[in-house]
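Sequence, structure tokens reproduced for reference:
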Amino acid sequence: MAPLRILSFDIECAGRKGVFPEANQDPVIQIANVVTRYGDTKPFVRNVFCLDTCSLIVNTQIFEFDAEEKMLMAWRDFLEKVDPDVIIGYNIANFDFPYLLDRAKHLKCTKFPYWSRLKNLQSHAKETNFSSKQMGNRDTKATNTNGRLQLDLLQLIQRDHQLRSYTLNSVCAHFLGEQKEDVHHTMITELFNGTPESRRRLAVYCLKDAFLPQRLMDKLMCLINYTEMARVTGVPFNYLLARGQQVKFISQLFRKALEQQLVIPNLRSEGTEEQYEGATVIEPTRGYYDVPIATLDFASLYPSIIQAHNLCYTTLLNKTSVEKLGLVKDEDYIVTPNGDMFCTSKIRKGLLTQILEELLGARKRAKKELAVETDTFKKAVLNGRQLALKVSANSVYGITGATVGKLPCLAIASSTTSYGRQMIERTKEEVEARYTLANGYDHDAQVIYGDTDSVMVKFGPKELAKAMDLGRDAAEYVSSKFIHPIKLEFEKVYFPYLLINKKRYAGLYWTTPEKYDKMDSKGIETVRRDNCRLVQNVIETILRKILIDQDVQGAQE
């Protein structure tokens, strides 16, 4: 990637006791800046703009000012001189940017709000609202810095990582294993009103707060991942944080449609109440299993159904068009389980199929690189990339079913889920019919639970290796019954396994018979974030006793 210049900054305000700083009263007293070239480990500029005097800090330029207006203007000139490509920080979108703008307005620094690369364009903080199914409703502010990208790490981490707390301190403790300087926000004004030494302590704190987002960005490699995502989906970089999934998909669709000279209708989204049947959940046979339970998963189920059956906006037919074109059933077109008709790929290959091929192809490449990569961190990046591609591929189905969306098409969405239901049922039948005592196997296999795209099978044998072989065999056997690219994969065995209810279970997760990989739990209090730590710890201890020590009696006590 190009050696972009990245500015990470943080501001400190002298607030009043017990009141959140307000721009019309509380001055900005320090601005810390760290400038790095992308790919370098060390920053080439480290400085702090301070109001009043401040003792020296190793390796850092200190600029002292006697008036706040002078400091703000000097910072703006510094911004222009450094001319960063990317501006980052922690909660800069909702706090630092708007605060600086409001403060400058209050102090009547009219030349201050020019931060963009367009010399005579002012920067404004606008109120925006972001809402999506995944994130809920969020009120945010957006500031224009035309020509410079913004990356607010708070927003990024809230989007991509499920944590219990999103303060800079706990996020850094989680990812970097270090914390902020020890200055409580109530001490800031006190330190500022003290001596040059105490202001130095504050400056060190401020500088660390500017440096941590830079470290987080390098560690999580978000710039690469997001650049990759923008490249694959063809949306401007800032959409990735400010918008939801749909815009990424629509832009890919536009790209493909343009190549084939198709026009996409501009539908008004009137959220209809129309519902369609979702995925199947096979009724769980609840209980505690002390024999290995094999899990068979469909690889990217919905995307592969769309590809296999060529479901698309461009291939959807109705009765009149079938008669008019004189198409032959099962050769030129298919009828899906819920009665919709789509033409086959020999007549026309759907756009959705092509988009999915690209996304899943890119994902396959990332996974291939992931397999040979040794550096743990690069591994995480590639993993991030393949997950982003997976989310994009899976959202193709979601957009056809989002009645409030830009291009809803319930025929595609309900056909996809109806095929999915049919496949889960068929998998259950095939497995239970083949692996029986009558066919010379040691046990009758039983499907104890099935969710959207996976089934849990109790094959019967007590040995892990045997259960794994049967799992692999079953996956191959069932895959052969379906059209390419639909593929059932054997991924893991749970042993022991505690099935509490639909979407709630726990077990030890084995991929090799030698040693278990981890304790895996779904929907149980240990993985939910809406309860207190005590509940989490108690339940975790109980699960450890049941699953790892296999001491059910001890767990009850």
